[in-house]
Design a protein that fits this description.
This protein is α/β, with parallel strands linked by helices. About 40% of the residues lie in helices and about 15% in strands. Helix 5 links the parallel strand 3 and strand 4.
């Protein structure tokens, strides 16, 4: 069944978590699971699971639960993981090079097909099987390789121009690791990943040594996934506990 047009990013995030959990159960030989069992095992909310899945049609049978493999395959299609998405990495420094060789970026659903950089010392080298090409050729390289997702790992001041070049090349999805908010173009989805922000959040937590400070932090903390029932929006879903429980290094990778 096709994905509803207005599916929220938070719902899609949770579907990704469910899929990873189901793949773990598949590897363990589990054939059926109830929403309660899935929630208990992976620290999720059973009612949230049922509501999320109901948006995409009927999956389980009351009193019987979900067929693990069937549900996993349905979610695989809902998340458009049944097609290969081709990635171009812009900025092949330490982070870009690491992402280019990361197995989660190179499986049956995603593949890094190109990388560009402005450093003459990197141009012409191969990183993870990808030939590093000149940054000035970004738009042409993206079109030639038929990339559909751009990954920005450039300094903040270089990110806007790189983003525009990707848009001009026809890309409609960008994963931005640069520490800057981009002026988004209509029809082009940007996901920002600012690792420094998460480090600063952890630093504040480490600084809260007294009970009052801890209570203050808890009052303003993000709501755990178990308590996200009925919430239309939140700053970020925090699926880390569920992913840790799933114990897989590469989400959705099909064995």
């Amino acid at each position: 069944m096709s994905e509803p047009v207005e599916t929220s990013a938070l719902t899609l995030n949770r579907l990704s978590v469910y899929l990873r959990c189901l793949r773990t159960l598949e590897c363990e030989g589990v054939q059926r699971v109830s929403s309660q069992e899935l929630a208990d095992r992976f620290h999720l909310s059973p009612s949230q699971i049922r509501r999320d899945l109901a948006q995409f049609g009927g999956f389980g049978v009351r009193g019987v639960g979900y067929d693990v493999s069937s549900l996993a395959e349905r979610l695989h299609r809902v998340l458009r993981l049944d097609a290969l998405h081709r990635l171009i990495v812009v900025g092949m420094g330490n982070l870009g090079s690491a992402l280019s060789t990361y197995l989660g970026f190179n499986d049956s659903s995603f593949q890094v097909v190109a990388g560009v950089d402005s450093d003459p010392g990197r141009i012409g080298t191969r990183i993870g099987g990808v030939l590093v090409e000149p940054y000035d050729d970004l738009a042409a390289v993206a079109r030639r390789c038929e990339a559909d997702i751009g990954v920005l790992t450039v300094p903040a001041d270089a990110a806007p121009a790189a983003y525009r070049a990707l848009v001009e090349a026809g890309l409609r999805a960008v994963l931005n690791f640069a520490p800057v908010l981009l002026d988004e173009v209509r029809g082009v989805r940007v996901k920002n990943v600012d690792l420094r922000v998460h480090l600063e959040e952890l630093a504040v937590h480490l600084g809260a040594t007294d009970a009052d400070s801890l209570r203050e932090l808890a009052a303003g903390a993000q709501v755990p996934a178990r308590d996200l029932e009925g919430r239309a929006d939140s700053a970020e879903i925090e699926p880390s506990s569920a992913l840790a429980a799933a114990g897989e290094a590469h989400p959705h990778r099909r064995g």
